[in-house]
Amino acid sequence: MKPGATVLILTLVSVTAFAGWSSSGPTGGSVNTVVVAPSNPAVIWAGDAAGVFRSTDGGTTWTNVSGTLVDVGFLAVDANDPNKAWAAAGWESTARVWRTTDGGATWTESSAGLPPLHPSALYVDPRDANTLYLGSQCGAKGYVNQPTFGPSTPGVFKSTDGGATWRQLPKPPTPSIPCGEELAIDPFSPWRVFHSGAFDDGARQFESFDGGESWEIGPGPRPTRAIVFDARYPFTHYGITSIYGQRLMVSQDGGFTWREVSRERLLGPAPPLSTDMRLTSLSMDPERSRIFFGTTDGIFRSGNGGSVWASTPLRNVPVNALGFGGTPPVLFAATANGLLALANRGLGAPATIDLHDVAANVSGLAVDPSDPSLVYAGVRDSFEAGQIRGRVFRSGDRGASWQRLAGDDDTPKADMISVGADGRVYALRSGVPSFGALYVRGRDDESWSMTPVPLPYGVAADPKNAGVAFLAQQNVVQRTRDGGLTWQNVASLTNPAVLAIDPSDPRWVYAGDGRALQRSSDGGDTWTTVSQNYTGQLIVAPSNGNVLYRSSTARANYHVERSDDRGATWRVLALPEVPLSPALAVDPRDADSVWVAQDAGLYHSSDGGATWQSVDQPFLITNGAVRLVFDPSGRILYAAYPNHGVWQRSVE
C-alpha cells in the first residue's frame, strides 16, 4: 500500500452511523450513476449521495459497499475485472477519487495530485486499466471564493498508474476558461478523447488523438458527453453532446468523422419531446444493436441506427445514467427518482430497485410537540424538466425507522411542516408560482385536505392550543382556530417570510418580512413592529421566551443575531458571515445552548453565542443542514441534509 494512503473497510450495519450521528432514512432519492461490469454482466455498480451499491446477481439483490464514501457522482469499472472500480465522490474541497480491488470491501483514496474539484466525468481506459480520465467543471462555486474552501480547478485530469497519482492535461487551444463540462472517451479507440468547456461556442469542441496530451478544435460538433459503438458493426459509433444544443451524432468510420442526426429525425414518430429536454446518457443492446438514450424527460430508443426513435415506458423522469446488462438482460437507469430496471432488454415497464439508501432530499422537518416519538419529513426527489416528485414520511420511533404517510401522493407539499398540539400536520411547498396550497391532515388521518393559497410563505402551529395555527401569505398573516377549516386575517406584512410561536407561552407570536419583524402578545389579535431589519429564520428559546435567535443580513451576507427582550433589540453574534442563510435550533432545556448550520459546517454555543465550537457533521460534505429541529425533551437533535435524509444525535 502506498504510504499515507487511506483505506476504508466496509462494516455492514442496519443503521448508518458517523461521528455520533445516525440515520435510518427516509430512504430513496436520486441515483447519479450505474455501471454494468464489462466482463461480467451480472455485476452492477450504482452510486448516489448515500454511497456505492453493488449487485452480483444481475440486479436481484444489492449490497451497500460504501464504507464511508458519500456523494458518489461517478463510477468506472475495470473492463477485465468486475471487482476493481473507481469512484469520484464529494464536491469542491471534499472531492476525492477512491479505488477498490475487492468489490468494495475496502476503498483506498487515489487523489494524489488532484486539486479541489467539481467532478463532471470519470472513465477508465477499456484496454488499459492503469489509464483513467477525470473531468472537472467550473461549477456553481468554481470561481467564487468561499470562507472555508477555495475555488475548484476546472479541466481534464489523467492518471497512468491506476489512479494512484494524477496530473492535469494541457489546456485546449482557446483563450476561454478550460472547464471540463463534458468529457467522453471512445471505447473502441480509447486514445481518442473529446472535451467541451463552458464558455466555448458549438464550433469549438475539442478532440484528442493522443489521450489528451494535445487537443484540436473539432470540425463541427463532437460527442463530448457519451459514446457507444455497435458490437456487431464496430466501426459504427454513436455519441451525444448537450452543452451546445441536444445533438445525436453517428460515425461510420470508427469515430474519425461524425455527422449529426437532424432534430426532426431525432423526434421522429415518438411522442413530442419537451423543448427543454436534455440528452444525458447513452447505452446499447450489444446483441440487437438497439440504442437507448437517457434524457431529462425519460428514455428513448432506436432500432435502426438513429433514423427513427420511439419512447420507452419510462417517461417524465430525469435520467442521469444508463447501463445495459444483468441476467437476463435489462436496462438499468439511474434517475432522479431512484434506480430503475426495464426488463425485456429495455422494452418492459420500469421496476424500482430499493437500495435502502439514505439519499432522500429532505426539505421539511418537524416533531410532534405532544408525541415526540413522531417525526415528519418532507422530501423533494427531482427538479428537472418540470418534474418534481414530493413525498412525506413519518417516523413513529424518533427516527429509528420511516414510513411514507398513508394516502400521500407525489404532489410536492411539505417543504415547510409544522405540527400542532393535537397532532394535526400543516404543510406548505416553497417556491410555488402565483397560487400554492396548504395541506392539512390529522395524526390518524388517511389523506390530506388541500386549500388553495395565494403565494404561501410560511406556517406555524400552536404547540399547546389545539387547532390554532398561523399562515403567512402575500401581504397578510392569517390565523385558524379550528384546525384549518376557516382562516382570519390578523396582520398585514409585505410577503411575510417567517413565523414563530413561543413554545412556552403561545400568546407571543412573531411574523417577519424583508423589512420588519412584528410581534403579538395576545395570540395574534394585535401586533407591534419591533424591528426594521430582515429576518430570515426565527427561533424562540423554549425555556425562556425573552430569548430569540434569528438569521439576518448585513451587506447582503447572512449572520446570526440574539435578542434578550422578545425582539425589541438585537446583537450580532460572533459567527462569521456566510453566503447562505443558516438553520437554527435552541436546546429546549437551555436558552444559551444554540446550534447553527452554515454552508460549510455545524456550530454549537453553550454561552448564548459568545463563543462557538465546531461540531463534526455526519460525513465529509460541504453543504450544511437545511433544517435543525430538537426533540421537545432536548435530548435528540435532528438535522436534514440535502440528499442525505434525516440524521440525529444525542445531546446531553
What attributes characterize this protein structure?
652 residues; mainly beta; five-stranded antiparallel β-sheet; 2 helices; elongated
Q: Work out the number of β strands.
A: 58
Q: Which segments are poorly predicted (pLDDT under 50) over 5 or more consecutive residues?
A: 1-15, 141-150, 268-272
Helix content: under 10%
- Calculate Rg over CA atoms: 26 Å
Oligomer: single chain
Output the number of helix runs. 2
Structural class: mainly beta
Mean pLDDT: 85
Strand adjacency order, main sheet: 1-11-10-9-8
Major beta sheet, specifics? 5 strands, antiparallel
Could you characterize the architecture of this molecule?
The chain has 2 helices and 58 strands. With about 650 residues, it is mostly beta strands. The strands form 14 sheets. The chain has a 5-stranded antiparallel beta sheet, with no helix packed on it. A 5-stranded antiparallel beta sheet has the order 2-3-58-57-56, with no helix packed on it. Strands 4-5-6-7 form a 4-stranded antiparallel beta sheet, with no helix packed on it. The radius of gyration is 26 Å and the shape is elongated.
How would you summarize the topology of this molecule?
Blueprint lengths: L6 E3 L6 E3 L2 E5 L5 E6 L7 E5 L2 E5 L7 E2 L7 E6 L7 E5 L6 E5 L5 E4 L9 E7 L2 E9 L18 E5 L7 E2 L13 E4 L7 E4 L9 E3 L7 E2 L8 E4 L7 E5 L5 E5 L7 E3 L1 H5 L11 E7 L4 E6 L2 E5 L7 E6 L3 E7 L4 E6 L2 E5 H4 L3 E4 L8 E6 L7 E6 L9 E6 L7 E2 L11 E4 L5 E4 L6 E7 L7 E6 L1 E6 L7 E5 L2 E5 L7 E5 L5 E4 L7 E4 L4 E4 L7 E4 L5 E4 L7 E7 L2 E7 L7 E2 L10 E4 L7 E5 L2 E5 L7 E3 L11 E4 L5 E5 L5 E5 L2
Antiparallel strand pairs: 1-11, 2-3, 3-58, 4-5, 5-6, 6-7, 8-9, 9-10, 10-11, 12-13, 13-14, 14-15, 16-17, 17-18, 18-19, 20-21, 21-22, 22-23, 24-25, 25-26, 26-27, 28-29, 29-30, 30-31, 32-33, 33-34, 34-35, 36-37, 37-38, 38-39, 40-41, 41-42, 42-43, 44-45, 45-46, 46-47, 48-49, 49-50, 50-51, 52-53, ...
